[in-house]
Each structure stands twice: as C-alpha cells, then as structure tokens.
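To whoever is on call:

I kicked off a structure prediction for a single chain this morning and the downstream step that reads the tokens threw a length-mismatch warning. I double-checked the sequence; it's 347 residues and nothing unusual in it as far as I can see. Pasting both halves so you can look.
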Amino acid sequence: MLRISVSTKALTLALILFSISITAQAQRESRVDAQPPGRINGQVRLANGQPAAEILVSCDAWSGGMVGQVRTDGGGRFHFENLGPAQFTVSIRQAGYLPVSETVEMATTSTAYVQFLLRVDPNAPAPTPGSVVDSNVPIAAQKEFEKAEAAMATGKKEDIQAAIGHYQQSLTIYPQFLKAQLELGTAYMDLGEWNKAEQTLKKTLELDPKAVNALFALGEVYFRQKKNEEAEKVLLQGLQIEDRSMQAHLTLARVYVDMAAKIKDQTENRPLRVKAYDQVNAALKYDANNAFAHWIKGNLLVSVGRDQDAQHEFEEYLRLEPKGPFTNQASTLIEKIKKELESQKKP
C-alpha cells in the first residue's frame, strides 16, 4: 500500500479543487491514433423549421454501451467527439415527440453530420415548458440571441462581453425568453462573474423551476462561491429530473470532495468521500473518456489506499489529456505508486 501522510493526502485532494470551467472541461486534447478521433455533428429542428434547443441527444456504440449524452444549443446544434472508428447510433427520445434515431458509420471517416426533424407525438402530453425554442419569441429577440451565440462561439473575453449585451437586449424585447436567460447566466460564468451568474440563473428558474441546465449551472456557481450546501441541494434537485447528466454528477463529486477536504479526520470525512466516489463513477458511466473524472477518481482511490486502482485512473488521465492541468501531479503519483509496489515485491 502506498504510504502517504494525512497532510499529503489532504494536499492531493485539494488539487482537485483547481477545477476548470464547464467549457474548458469539455475540450480535450486529441489522442494520437492511426485515425484521428472521430466527431459527429448534428442539428435538431421542429416540424415548423425552428431549431430545437435543450433536446437530449444520445450516442450509443453499435457494439453496446452509451458513449455520451448532450443537449442541443440555442441553434439546435450538438456534437459528440473523441469517437473511435466504429458504428454508432444517435437517437432522441424527447417527451411529447416521436422518437428518432440514425446509424452513423465512423470506420472510414473522422467526421459525420446528422439532422433530425422532431414531430409531435399526437398520443403524448405536451412538451415541458422551456424544453424547446419558444415559438412566441419575436424575430427581433431571436436575432439578438443569434448575434450573442455567434459572439460566444469565439471564446474571446471581449466577444463574451458583447454577447452579454445581445442577450440582455433579447430579454428586453422578450422577458420570457428562457434560453436567452440561461445563456446569459452561463456567459457570466465564462467571465468568472459568479454573483451575476447566480442572480441570472435564479431568474431562469423563476421562468421554469424545472430547467435542469439552469439547476446544474447554478450548482457550479455555488461551488465556485464555496456554498457547498446550496450546490448540493440544486444539483440533487436537477438530478431528480434528469439523472443522466455527466457534468452534474461530476460537479456533485467535486462538491463532496471539497466538503471532505475541510474535515481533517479521515474517519469523519469518509462518508463524503464515498458519496464523491459514487458520483464520479456515475459521471464516467455517461462519459468514460472524461479525463478530469479519472483524475478525481484516482485521488479518491489513493485516499483509501487502493493504490494500484489509483494508478490505472492516473494513467487514463494522462492518456486522455497528456498536456492537461494535472499532468505533472499524475505522473508523480504514478511513479510513487510504482516504486512502492516494487519495494513490496522485494524479500
């Protein structure tokens, strides 16, 4: 067993707290393979031609197992990345609409495009409010929203600030514009303006208390504000509505790790570490290629002396993100574990 002092363990756990933004976590370094990692791009529209936002899209491997799930953006767009040369099924099962799916072959190409048209299921209840683009949005408000989305796409600070102005203008035109309110909140998050993000996301929830993306985003905001109890509450609330969100499970794991790190006694903080472990496993269930989740899991395994299992998680982190923010720490821990395991083999 790797013998690490309590203070070192606490330091190891504390490294997890240097979390990156939601957007940055979603962008991973590409792996060097015989064929470049694959990517499926797509768009979802309603029968009237409008883009459908906040629609849950699933990607499953033909051989079995879920690859991941994402929600469409304001333009109805979505994508899955880091895919291997295999066959996949992209599908949508949205309440109030007929299910749709398409098989995508990635064995001979690294990119593919799919387009879905959602048709209302005449035998199903009406869709949940806010689950798609509001057909009542005036054209002027929609144009401001599209300008904001285009500005956000660059990722530049000055463009994000410009996007905020467009989101605000769209809300001035149409105050019930749920998607604009949500995106305004996440724009503030990208700038690290957590108090503004909190207030904006709360307004989103006033428009729709079951807007899961707003609940999940607010959980991240509370975590950044060191309001762990509030973060836990809204994340669990969101997961009761939609429990297949990788990001929500991962954020909740970080919340529990932070709670545990503030309790020095290893016995007393163990229940929180167990909760964190369960949540990070749930996150990896929906995205096995999330490097940050492997990093967290590795640290949790070290804290309970499961060193060989931890080594595997750190190696997965390095494989998926060879130039990531925790590359040096992961490499150091792997070497420590290897040396300890070698010393145990000696008579």
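Update from on-call: the warning came from a stale cache, not from the record. Cleared it. Sanity check on the structure: The longest strand covers residues 38-46.
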